[in-house]
Amino acid sequence: MPLHHACAATTLTSWHLLVTFCSLHVAQWVKLFEHKPFDSRTVMGFGILNGVSIGLLNLSLGFNSVGFYQVNRSQLSMCSQNWIDQVQDAI
């Protein structure tokens, strides 16, 4: 892939994160939602699990079909939701 395409993707992602960050702060400022405490260890664990799974699924996409990727991604989403439910029940 040419370098200019990677730059465009990085710029688009950066703009998306910036707009999301600003929108959420404005929404909190106008009291559209309230801040609730959370267990940072659980969130970090889920973030690491999600990051590793995305990396491995993208790696497997090089060797498998798109259909296989989509099935694995949907199964992983269900497993992640189950894991979140179990953690919340334990709290």
Structural description of this entry:
The chain is mainly α and 91 residues long. It has two domains: 1-36; 37-91. 81% of the residues lie in helices and 0% in strands. It has helices at residues 3-29, 40-61, 66-90. The radius of gyration is 17 Å and the shape is flat. The termini are far apart. 0% of the residues are buried. The model has no long low-confidence stretch (mean pLDDT 78).
Distance between the termini: 46 Å
DSSP strand (E) fraction? under 5%
Give the H and E element order.
HHH
Which regions are unreliable across 5 or more consecutive residues at pLDDT < 50?
A: none
Number of alpha- plus pi-helical segments? 3
The general outline is flat
Rounded to an integer in angstroms, the radius of gyration calculated over CA atoms is 17 Å
Number of structural domains: 2
Q: In a few lines, what is going on in this structure?
A:
The protein is mainly alpha-helical and 91 residues long.
Features:
single chain, 91 residues, mainly alpha, 2 domains, 3 helices, 0% strand
